[in-house]
Structure to design on (979 residues):
């Protein structure tokens, strides 16, 4: 079943826990009114509080607290009605206060779980240890001047949620599945955009190895890995390094490491001896964070439907398979699109059009579901045209392509191109007559028992009617005619 | 004599148009010119034209009949309050050239009520000290002198020593102070003026340079108890920018002064009768008890059993918070910067050049008590003691309305005295620190002179947010003591 790495002394199990830093979606920073927009000019989104001017004080941003609670609820976690902010003290040029305001001993969210799904269809529960709120630091720019480093404080003070998993992850694939699932939940909740390229979601990866059944061995923390692929690579590389050390009779040192994707290796960032003493203590500028259960309940009631229940509902309400439902709920916007198309229509047909023709068109035109050239309404109307037999499935593909190109409504395209399905039995009968006239030999063969040729005749009649004939009527008429 | 008035008297004079705010300001500008070189009470004085312009605006409001609570009253501002466009140093080299682009909430409130700022008063560096000796701009000097030896310069107390010296000597009608462990009350006692540390949370800390956030509280330093009430009313109020500020309504505090204190219960904490308390201070305390009995108060003995752990706890908690609060002075964004080849080098060089020895001591102590392995033994323990001390007060206030104690264990001492033994220096705070740890309001009232002719103060401590009863009792003491003595150096002398 499980993932192991074969060493010289036999198989090794890996033990992984993830600490994800997720930037909170909010208008302003955790403790100041400054804006949080990404990509602004350096030092244009900095308040006196962020720059830690003398006498400046933090004031908690309630929207950030609400976002942390929503996230906690989305992770099926315990919400702590009483939590506290602490100061984590260290000096660095990107940290104006000389301390980060974080939650050390009393986080706002306690234990929860995430259900992950693996390639083979198995699911696993990964425990969440905690979620806490903290400030992000600024950014140092080392490439602007040959001798100086510049400081950009736009990000300083932006709210982060640190989401810590239990050491429940046993394979790189599981780490990837965990991160994708977490990102999906955060996006559904609207509490973090999950954009790893822009750094709004970053992962620290704790890795250790052991022989099956052993207690945990020493772990190393790999800091700030910024893509899911790199997280998976880093785990494998780091586990292999540790196995080599153990198998050569060495000891793995507890330390903080960096992953170099170019070289495919991890290397020491700081050892345990260099570890900071952060001198955590309760921030005396802030009162304990006390929440009303009624507010938590209110936030709970207003949560959007999350991916797992939505998937189950899609299966049930629209009669689509588990796998398809998973594809459709992967992103909230796709799920919404699908549901707009499927509501009151044939759910299976809708699913096949969305995951088939629509996804292909998005791919081809370099658009996303949000910028799709075909709206859910328009696609729905097109399905209606199939349902009421105005067009058949084959013609629908042509109509759809036209919709992608022109943005016209399906009705307009059908009218413009004269694609309305032929249901006039007179027209169909004369098309059949023409076909039979052209292929007397085939007719002979059919009549002498070669039943398979029925399909040939259907094809020829459709061709004769330029694909517009109603296939059911063609079938019926042909049958009458041939078997007469 | 315009520079000897109380705020209340000056306000009445201005309202009656007996004199103008411009005349009042001019008298103070003159006094500062004459006496500040000797007293060093101000680190920075505002340009005369700015002071006079503010006074003229106040005169216009009096003429229009809509003056504010503090309108036209010239006051000093402790140089720990950030003042927009006016250099704010915290008496530290590290902020020697710092000009804030913002106004602290308390000073903004005072400006809103029409106060006229004369300048920024001297203090111990970052408010750390009890003698105003640690200022990077030189010590402020107490205008009082020993009758026997006028040549010995005395400390004005600290940390708000510039404010107390200025108010005592007539270089301001009143001044703002901040109190972390006694920094308003002890200098008020040493200089023969009134000082009120309000309840923690009464005045916003926004824009006040932090020493120890859980203890720092701004308050008035004045010539009368009623003035303290008037000025506090102008300073206080909820501020959404300070999460620890209280949203309770701000009463007209000065109206509490003069109210009958008959039937109020006054507690005398046994633990403050420390062995070694000078007989003169004990006598003054007994005198205060007698006055309050005469005024109809009921005096009862109470116990604050954890008092003796107060000073130790304070000197763990305050340095711990300061070690973190002062981390922002790193030479990167503002303040003194000494360049060095590495980032750590810039920190080391800038902070070594910027901070004086007492600040460095406290940062080191604070860093130590928060370190891994020591946190539980020091910081956590001190926080527990703090809780017990607060409980001591709460229990005492179940039976009494206020507590009466001496403000300090001695009168003002000579500059340079107590400098070799920091613990001896810290002992000055022994009577003031417990109220700070508990967050309760406490007032120092001048009640008499010792044998050397130096002022002594008594401290009235009250319940959380019950400044009014404290002021009533303070008013009764003030009335009974009739303290009208003047220091050797004052603006009226020889004029």
């Amino acid at each position: 079943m499980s993932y192991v790495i074969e060493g010289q002394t036999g198989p090794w199990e890996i033990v992984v826990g993830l600490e994800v830093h997720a930037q909170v979606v909010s208008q302003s920073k955790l403790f100041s009114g400054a804006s949080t927009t990404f990509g602004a000019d350096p030092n244009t989104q900095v308040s006196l509080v962020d720059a830690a001017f003398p006498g400046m004080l933090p004031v908690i941003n309630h929207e950030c607290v609400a976002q942390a609670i929503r996230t906690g609820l989305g992770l099926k976690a315990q919400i702590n009605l009483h939590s506290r902010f602490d100061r984590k003290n260290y000096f660095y040029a990107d940290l104006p206060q000389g301390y980060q305001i974080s939650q050390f001993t009393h986080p706002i969210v306690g234990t929860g779980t995430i259900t992950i799904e693996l390639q083979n269809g198995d699911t696993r529960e990964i425990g969440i240890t905690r979620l806490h709120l903290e400030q992000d630091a600024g950014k140092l720019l080392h490439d602007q001047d040959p001798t100086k480093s510049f400081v950009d404080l736009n990000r300083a003070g932006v709210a982060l949620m640190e989401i810590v998993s239990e050491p429940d992850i046993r394979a790189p694939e599981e780490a990837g599945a965990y991160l994708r699932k977490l990102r999906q939940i955060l996006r559904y909740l609207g509490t973090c955009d999950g954009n790893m390229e822009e750094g709004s979601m970053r992962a620290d990866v704790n890795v250790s190895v052991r022989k099956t059944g052993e207690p945990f061995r020493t772990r190393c923390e790999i800091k700030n890995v910024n893509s899911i692929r790199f997280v998976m690579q880093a785990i494998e590389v780091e586990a292999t390094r540790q196995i080599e050390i153990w198998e050569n009779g060495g000891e793995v040192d507890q330390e903080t490491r960096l992953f170099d994707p170019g070289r495919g290796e991890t290397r020491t960032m700081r050892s345990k001896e260099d570890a900071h003493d952060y001198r955590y203590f309760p921030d005396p500028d802030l009162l304990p964070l006390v929440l009303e259960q009624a507010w938590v309940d209110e936030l709970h009631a207003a949560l959007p439907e999350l991916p797992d229940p939505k998937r189950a509902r899609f299966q049930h309400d629209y009669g689509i398979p588990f796998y398809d439902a998973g594809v459709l709920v992967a992103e909230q916007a796709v799920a919404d699109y699908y549901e707009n198309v499927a509501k009151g229509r044939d759910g299976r047909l809708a699913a096949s059009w969305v995951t088939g023709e629509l996804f292909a068109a998005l791919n081809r035109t370099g658009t996303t579901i949000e910028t799709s050239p075909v709206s859910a309404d328009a696609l729905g109307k097109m399905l209606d045209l199939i349902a009421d037999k105005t067009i058949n499935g084959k013609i629908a593909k042509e109509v759809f392509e036209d919709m992608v190109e022109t943005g016209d409504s399906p009705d307009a395209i059908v009218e413009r191109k004269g694609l309305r399905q032929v249901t006039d039995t007179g027209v169909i009968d004369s098309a059949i007559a023409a076909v039979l006239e052209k292929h007397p030999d085939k007719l002979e063969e059919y009549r002498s028992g070669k039943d398979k040729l029925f399909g040939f005749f259907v094809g020829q009649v459709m061709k004769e009617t330029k694909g517009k004939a109603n296939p059911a009527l063609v079938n019926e008429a042909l049958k009458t005619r041939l078997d007469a | 004599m315009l520079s000897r008035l109380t705020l209340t008297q000056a306000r009445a004079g201005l309202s009656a148009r007996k004199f103008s705010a411009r005349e009042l300001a001019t008298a103070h500008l003159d006094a500062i010119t004459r006496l500040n070189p000797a007293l060093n009470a101000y680190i920075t004085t505002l340009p005369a034209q700015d002071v006079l312009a503010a006074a003229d605006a106040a005169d216009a409001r009096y003429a229009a009949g809509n003056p504010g609570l503090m309108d036209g009253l010239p006051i000093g501002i402790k140089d720990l309050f950030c003042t927009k466009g006016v250099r704010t140093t915290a008496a530290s080299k590290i902020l020697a050239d710092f000009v804030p682009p913002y106004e602290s909430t308390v000073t903004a409130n005072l400006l809103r009520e029409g106060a006229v700022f004369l300048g920024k008063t001297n203090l111990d560096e970052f408010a750390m000290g009890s003698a105003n000796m640690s200022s990077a701009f030189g010590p402020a000097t107490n205008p009082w002198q020993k009758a026997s030896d006028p040549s010995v310069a005395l400390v004005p107390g600290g940390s708000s020593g510039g404010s107390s010296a200025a108010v005592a000597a007539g270089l301001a009608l009143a001044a703002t102070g901040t109190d972390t462990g006694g920094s308003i009350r002890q200098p008020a006692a040493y200089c023969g003026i009134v000082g009120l540390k309000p309840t923690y949370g009464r005045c916003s800390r926004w824009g006040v340079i932090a020493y120890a956030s859980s203890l720092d509280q701004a308050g008035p330093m004045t010539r009368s108890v009623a003035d303290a009430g008037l000025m506090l009313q102008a300073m206080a109020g909820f501020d959404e920018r300070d999460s620890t500020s209280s949203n309770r309504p701000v009463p007209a505090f000065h109206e509490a002064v003069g109210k009958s204190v008959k039937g109020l219960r006054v507690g005398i904490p046994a633990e403050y009768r420390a062995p070694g308390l000078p007989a003169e201070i004990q006598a003054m305390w007994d005198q205060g008890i007698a006055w309050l009995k005469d005024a109809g108060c009921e005096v009862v003995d109470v116990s604050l059993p954890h008092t003796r752990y107060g000073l130790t706890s304070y000197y763990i908690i305050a340095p711990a918070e300061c070690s973190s609060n002062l981390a922002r002075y790193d030479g990167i964004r503002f303040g003194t910067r000494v360049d060095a080849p590495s980032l750590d080098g810039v920190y080391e060089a800038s902070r070594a050049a910027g901070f004086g020895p007492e600040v460095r001591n406290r940062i080191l102590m604070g860093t130590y008590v928060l370190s891994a392995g020591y946190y539980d033994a020091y910081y956590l323990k001190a926080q527990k003691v703090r809780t017990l001390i607060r409980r001591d007060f709460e229990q005492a206030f179940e039976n009494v309305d206020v507590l009466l104690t001496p403000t300090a264990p001695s009168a003002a001492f000579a500059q340079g005295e107590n400098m070799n033994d920091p613990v001896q220096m810290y002992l000055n705070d022994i009577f003031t620190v417990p109220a700070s740890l508990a967050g309760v309001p406490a007032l120092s009232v001048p009640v008499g002179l010792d044998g050397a002719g130096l002022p002594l103060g008594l401290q009235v401590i009250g319940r959380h947010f019950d400044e009014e009863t404290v002021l009533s009792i303070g008013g009764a003491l003030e009335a009974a003591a009739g303290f009208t003595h003047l220091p050797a150096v004052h603006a009226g002398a020889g004029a």
Notes: Residues 86 and 282 of chain A are 4 Å apart (CA to CA). Residues 228-247 of chain A form the longest helix (20 residues). The radius of gyration of chain A is 30 Å. The first strand of chain A starts at residue 5 and ends at 7.
